[in-house]
Amino acid sequence: MNDELDRVLAAEPDVVPSSRFAGNVIAAVRREAAMPPPIEFPWRRALPAIIAAGIVLLALVGLAAFLAISADYSRLPTLAGVNHAWLRPLVTTAAACLLSWFSVRASAILSARR
Q1: Confidence at 50, pLDDT banded by 50, 70, 90
Q2: How far apart are CA 16 and CA 13, in angstroms?
Q3: pTM (2 decimals)?
């Protein structure tokens, strides 16, 4: 099997690049070298806003967690003895969804201001 494969591969002609290939490559390299360097991101100016956004986001997450944990569901009126223990995960999920929506909306608004 290997001898047959070697014979088939040896019978194929060599691949030779076109005469303009090297010239095109050199021209492309020169164009890239002549381009100015990319503009750096202004981290020093953006860092305070990033830190403030992180603090606000952590505060909102903490507030949502505190409200979800400290809610007293036992004081809710019962309907014919129905247990309302299912409300805690529902409120927690709703708080997480609202917090996620607020984060996405705030980032969309801030990024659109340019």
Answers
A1: very high
A2: 9
A3: 0.38
